[in-house]
Records
---
Amino acid sequence: MADINVDILIIGAGPTGLGAAKRLNHINGPSWLIIDANEKAGGLASTDVTPEGFLYDVGGHVIFSHYKYFDDCIDEALPKEDDWYTHQRISYVRYKGLWVPYPFQNNISMLPKEDQVKCIDGLIDAAMASRVATTKPKDFDEWILRTCGEGVADIFMRPYNYKVWAVPTTKMQCQWLGERVAAPDVKLVTKNVILNKVAGNWGPNATFRFPARDGTGGIWIAVSDTLPKEQKRYGQKGEVTKVDAQKKMVTLKDGTTIGYGKLINTMAVDHLVEKMGSQELVKLSKGLFYSSTHVIGVGIRGERPERIGDKCWLYFPEDNCPFYRATIFSNYSPYNQPQADAKLPTLYHADGSKPKSSDAKEGPYWSIMLEVSQSSMKPVDEANLLKDCIQGLINTEMIKAEDEIVSTYHRKFDHGYPTPSLEREGVLKELLPKLQDMDIWSRGRFGSWRYEVGNQDHSFMLGVEAVDNIVCGAVELTLNYPDFVNSRQNTERRLVQSFYNAGSASANGVPVRPAPQA
């Protein structure tokens, strides 16, 4: 017998695991427990704080939602108006010393004339070719050519996407695109070029929310705090060392064993199958590709420069900097950096030169967060990456050589982006059902490996929908029909809905099926 027995065990307290736990707590049916190796909730949506008091998220996270249930849960966790800031996305692409409004392919009116001609040529050729095409694009590169043409492909789409994904666009499939990449309107682009006009905001995150305090990680700590303490097990006492799918038992680092009826796994699925010790599944998971992400933070003394202004996040396709994206993190909240009266010494100037004085001085302060990808197809000089990124900030005129650096941050996340590789669907269509046949629902950004439903709202709902599938047999729309959930307001589930408990199932048995009350 295991030391602890529950109907449903959740591995991981990131957005997906917390979504599952919130739903189980809401329906008040099967017994459950959530475990995580980290002391605090958040997973890949957590926030770090430097010794100097600068906050940095694990990559670029903002809150925009396709689901009312997600909204309900985070509003319950952070209910006050002053818990949040709402921002209009101000986003640009850096190209040839210019700030081109995002999305680049809709704003070639901002480019030098010779590049405008190259892009228009390609767009017209692509439009004509696509009218007679009888097959779907075979990969992401072909999708780019058919949609944007050779000019936009060479100037922006190919170099930028290589910097993001750390694999060439020819090695990626294109079913994931959906709302992620804007398809240009040739007539509108041409009209804007002639009239020298800028296209408006595009995409689901044109307006977004950000927590006033504690960064994105603060959201998930607050969500976790709404759950019963006795049903959470975080830190070393929640670290999984072995998953025995046959015995339906998980062993933790401290030796504790947990028996379960159903398992919702949100750790990376390649790590899961290793802990299961199944050579068949390990071999199958080798077909999944991912890139690592380096998050670099730079804290700077001084007023935010006018050239930076209210920019949110910025894209960098060129090779004059290692990062593909920069976020002006201090613009999201005044609490993302130390207050102006905090005294900090200058570490060095941006050009590497030492300051004349090592005395601590007051601010104000502002900050930039950078992201750099890495893979076997895109190596990175990790030892010099921070220095190279600061030089990249100078090269792109984000900062000046004489700027005072008061704080730096560098953290590598081995699993950063789940790559939509050509092989991905073939692997997932075999791997996920095999796991489910063993009563393991593997879900989440890396649990189910689908980037197109890897945002915070998607990830949370993958956990919610896994619970409803286990308990009621409901279809998991987010996992199986990404384009459908991304094209609508999903209002069917609400936190105010109530359930009655039809009696508790025995541990390791079939969970109860609570019915919603009218």
---
Amino acid sequence: MSDLVEASTTTSIPKDPTSLIHPRREPFEHGLLPIPKLIFTDPTQTLIPLKQKLIEQSSPGHRVGSSAISEAFQISIDHARLVLDTLGSILHSDSDPLVKANPDEIDAVGADIHDLVLFLYIQSYKRLLPRTHKDSAAVADVWPSTSAFDGYLSALSPLQLVRSNSRRFVPSQADEEAHQLSYLQKHLANILSLLAEPVEGEGEESLVLTMDRFEHLGFLIQFGDKGSEESNLSQSAPFFANSDPDMPAVPVPAAQVHDWILQNIASTLEHISERNNMKDNGPSNASDPDVAMTDACASSVKASTNTRGPSFIEGISKTSIVKQASDLKGSSVKVLNCHDSVIYVLAPLRYATIYGCSDATIVIGAVGKAVRVEHCERVHVITASKRVCIANCRECVFFLGVNQRPLMVGDNHKLQVAPYNTFYSQLEEHMSQVGIEATINRWDEPLALGVVDPHDSLSHPAGVSDAQAESATRIDPDQFTNFLIPRWFGGESPGSTKDNPFPLPDPYLSSQSRNLKNLAEIKQQLREAPLEENRKRELSCALHVYFKDWLYGND
């Protein structure tokens, strides 16, 4: 597409850091699916004719449902519905019909074809490799050890590499952002070719973008610290900024858009490089949202200084912490490299990531878009969420209130799923804020994809790419217990939630009833035991001692 790389009118680039261009992290962090048929050697050559075919077959609004996606890309209906669900969870506009649709309306509403092709294009993205931690000896004391379950696949999987002696950690936010911008920089001409259209009568060599098509780029890029707030990308573009709202904006040459975005990307990459140089040559700033990961043995809870980035809870070891809405900046949280701890995040969120944790219990309040749990061992995760993705985990239990099928990808081992098992006073209010339906819980319908994630930049042995990820088993109802969140953790203000808002399936409800009945009988027997007062005090003290031993043993 030579016309997109020709020089065009130069536009000045803002020096104010709040006006810099940024990649939207959500598509890259929560939108990549390891479905081989959706990863193209040459995305442009594949997607342009398929896009045209879908437009010809679609409704007047250029939207398509799972049947059309299944037929066009030769994937199963389950995978096509997964595409719709995933796209709906990462779209940039909360006013899009797909985002607002009820679960039973999603197929009828469908996805906008232009958002769909951008989503499919970035399936070619390769994640930045984990980096080696600066103090691998310190990390070795708390990082999950090699498990007895490690086998041939695990030895060559992302899990084994992350847990190898090199003690790799996730990249810093700044490094990830630079990597995503570099990807967009390299592929921008192709991306624009999926949105541009020829001028009538002038052929394919003269491509333009209308303001409406330009807005679709908001799926991948944004300006300043707008975060998840609704905003129009065209307001930041000099060629659309002063358009008369009552008149259709004049289409802009694709080459001009290409040049302008590339200049903005170059400016941001230069800004990131300068900040990295400053951090390398000076003392680190603990409040900087783009700093690298803290030492694993040091407690660290920090929030981004802007609404665009997530809040971090990282490096927690052998303790309990509680975070509520007022403690968090923005609407996303990342729990990273926490061990032997209990972590409560009791807040309404859009996205949550749990990475590299072991021997911990993590309660995430209400997440309206997506939760991703990755590289964890022996962790109990309790969350109410629209959707959940579990990757490269082992010996973990997930207590879920989830509206979409839990997604299992990568090298998972010995996972269990169970219905949601807790509550706090503001839970239903938080669920309502982020759009989670308590009447829909698909906790026991996991969908397993491939063992190998083609987005991880790692090499894998021949034949492994066809293997399917291990799914999860249901926890035995007799092993199911409620998790009690202490009342003083329940919320910053009194709420109306008095019980688990997700109905329990009958076997689990029966088990719960038996446990409650047994507890009541034991209490009654203790009350009626013919003991003298001093013996009752001794019994009470013994019970307290055993309870403390149990509590510390499960800390």
---
Amino acid sequence: MVQYFRYHQLKKGEHHHAGEDEMLSLMSATSSGYFKRSRPKLFSLLILSLLSCCLILGSHLFCSPSAFSLLYSFGVEGDGVAANVNAKASLCSSISNGTICCDRSSIRSDVCVMKGDVRTNSASSSIFLYTSKSTDAVIQNVSKDELQHERIKPYTRKWETSVMDTIDELDLIVKTENFRINHHCDVKHDVPAVFFSTGGYTGNVYHEFNDGLLPLYITSQHFKKKVVFVILEYHDWWIMKYGDILSHLSDYPAIDFSGDKRTHCFPEAIVGLRIHDELTVDPLLMQGNKSVVDFRNVLDRAYLPRVQSLLKEEERLAQEKLKQKVHSSSSEIRKEVQDATLKRPKLVILSRNGSRAITNEDLLVKMADEIGFRVEVVRPERTTELARIYGALNSSEVMIGVHGAAMTHFLFMRPGSVFIQVIPLGTEWAADAYYGEPARKLGLKYVGYQILPRESSLYDKYDRNDPVLRDPESVSEKGWQYTKSIYLDNQNVRLNLGRFQKRLLRAYSYTIAKMNRRSHL
């Protein structure tokens, strides 16, 4: 059963975290509908209160980096006093040998850094750090054998108990160096390791990028590929699917933490992944001001060689097809020649099956063709090779799709391209928060096409004055199951082509102007 998932919403005056998706696993969602994102109205008061506490109780209690990191985690990094904090200085950016430092200030994920003699023990789900420091030198004593003991689940949906309960937990333990006598290294690495999980919602393209690949890039890119990835809840299919990307983030094969029983030794380890926001990279939090465009450049390097080989194969097949069309009608041949010589802008429609499908998609294709687009319909499946989807979208000028996990593929578009998201009833906030805003950050020209009640299949099922049609937000506020069962699982779209045509014409004009400028240059 396909399920749809989002973040727990915090009430008015707090930051609203959300995560929209169609789930391919049988996980329960306990959320309660969509709310509009807003910055905390009482943020200024919060800052004043924080500063007052600092003055009264001392800077060592409240004016610590962790206090400000907590403020950042609630989405206020660009406002007021917090804007003056050096956001690039992580709490654990500089630690001494023989130390574990854990940053638990973010609502999205915990991250621990271990530096020194780091050794794995998969049988006990533990990572040990051996140190020459005496017990007196370590702050946190937990037993006579352990100098420090931390626990962490290295997955980026920390706030969501239902999924975090399924993630394997790691014990991070500091011991004195005399204990390593019975813990020999089977494999000694001279580069750091990053530990993370591919469990949870892995299997859904939105979560694979939002919860996994983008945070992995954020956490590891500064190592310049000199890093080993150690994966909990390891999946061979995930490695095969994303191997092209992983090879551009690390020079070394990934390690299956549970499956590889050998002791791996590292000079340093980061356990957990840092995450910024939905499908994006915040340059204010990155060394060298790296952004989501830099992540997309990694995708370019990962997929373009395969795309080029696919194009050569398509050209060969096209030539064979042309030879077979010697007896075809002259009009068909003329149209193919016209498409090639005029270089009509390419428009890709990401087609859906089942819920939230465009029922008059064939008429949409016809209209787009008449406007002047060269139309390609792509139907992503779980088994579809990502390089094929990347090739289609990377070479397109415009993409159209209905709100859902497949919209994650906007990351495959070139900055400056047009992304038109069709927004069904009841999905307005999620559509913009999870795809619209991230697309703008990538440099796409984003167009959100909010359908009217008459364009929804729900129009034939409910009375015209029913809140389902008239006030979807009030329905969503009743609870998550209402949103899911009504708007996500049982709604299709029949576009008002006259209304939608206006967006397509504007997209066409913009694209032609851009192509002319490029040709002139």
---
Amino acid sequence: MPKHYRPAGKKKEGNAARYITRSQAVKYLQVSLSLFRKLCILKGIFPREPKKKVKGNHHTYYHTKDILFLKHEPLLEKFREMRAYEKKIKKAVSKKNRDLAERLLTRKPSYTLDMLIRERYPKFIDAVRDLDDCLSMVHLFAALPAVEREKIPVNRVHNCRRLGHEWQAYIARTHKLRKTFISVKGIYYQAELDGQKITWLTPHALQQVLPDDVDYNIMLTFLEFYETLQAFVNFKLYHSINVKYPPILDPRLEALAADLYALSRYFDNRASMTESATTSFSESDVSKDQGKGPNYDESELRLAQLQQQLPSNEPGALMHLVQNAAETDEDDSETRECKTLFKDVKFFLSREVPRESLLFVIPAFGGSVSWDGEGAPFKETDQNITHQIVDRPTQGHKFLSREYVQPQWIYDCVNARILLPVEEYIVGRIPPPHLSPFVDNEAEGYVPEYAETIKRLQAAARNEVLPMPGVGKEDLDDPQNLLVEGVIDRAEAIEAATKKRKMSVLQKQYHDELKKELRSTQISTASDGNKESVSEHIDAGEDSLPDLSQISKDADSMSKIVMPRKKQKLLKAMEIGKERKQASVDRLKERKRKIEEGKKSGK
């Protein structure tokens, strides 16, 4: 009998019962492979790696319980209904029944992913933890062109832009942005929301090229889920600061679209009417007003607003939303620090700088910003502008009342949390290296030179005292301990110096007595003719005597070796200070000597 023989009809056990291959799952659910992939993406079901692959290593395995969840998913029945309905439409078109086909198209069933969001994320904090990939995907498709052959429609691109700008408006309003970094791939951002750090990547505002080796159907399935998730998160965040969602944009910033401008005015008038008091108007007056004008549904007007949304106007409109939002009272210390970084600074953006990114970063840190174009809050000729962001080799016309800096200065100031000196970032100069805030220099074992400069500037801005070489930061935190150790070290140093002096005196006395004894013996035994040889012997005796300087150096080195490491570092720092003082005194003496020589030569 084979080792793994199982009689027919016996229940499966082990990995054979717990796992199922992809082809078996597709056959079990009676769906196509593309629909199976879509269901797995929406439900969050991923392949598994069993310890023992029963069917072989070339198969993809899924957990049997996951497939059973898919079997009872209501979305699967909805997809089957939609497939049957599409067959009806195709049949009507093939029979050339145009009226029936049009009626069927208007009643085409649709589905929503709301229940999946609530199922996968029972709490809001769970959705916040999973926002990294969501935000990166939404911002990626917001920058892609609408291509019909890749099934990327225009409304999906506009919806991604709207969701991305709404998220950025909330982060800028609540000052939750913490880090930024410009890389070759794009611009990295990190925000802190409910104690969770969210990092996402936005591509540069350039013409994007779509590669051919990417399956956009899978990416669009992920995007479909992420759009619903982002809309839920934005809704929750906006209501947490008492702002209506979706936001109504400023009509001044949509002057290029007349219809959209009129719809926004209608929304503003309707909001002002509800805020003032509806009690002054009776129901009859409202019915009369509705009889005079067309009766629009709010959802239809909002849909028309989104369809006609101009991408160039959205950043400024959302910045206007940020300015008008209500203030929050409960802010932590880091949020308060970010809020006041650009508090008294007024920026103006030139045409060549990344406007959308700077319109997001500058308000997030408390600054006011304007740009060159219609709908700007203030013009370039405003005398209150303190900094103008320029990214060109030279600047022709300049205002003396402001600084002209490169865009990197904004991002470096944000990462350092201080206003860095602008001399290194002026127009036409190569800026210093753009350091990543996501890298821990201490852990890497290498601290760049500019990072040390920023550290010193931060300490100067916060009135901190940096430790001397050889002294740790824990010594500065406990000055009493440092004082005690300094007193002990000083007493030990004084005791060692006295011992050294006594030893040197005794050694000198011994050497003098030895010299006298040698001279007396040589003079008594030598004749007058060989006095020169006697003197040579005396000199040789002096040379054979031990060197006093070498003995003192040996004593110093021995005392250093006996000292603890911390005291050795402190002694080394004291010696470095003495050497620097002596060098400065020597320089002053040399300068004085040169001045005197110059006076003498002049006479």
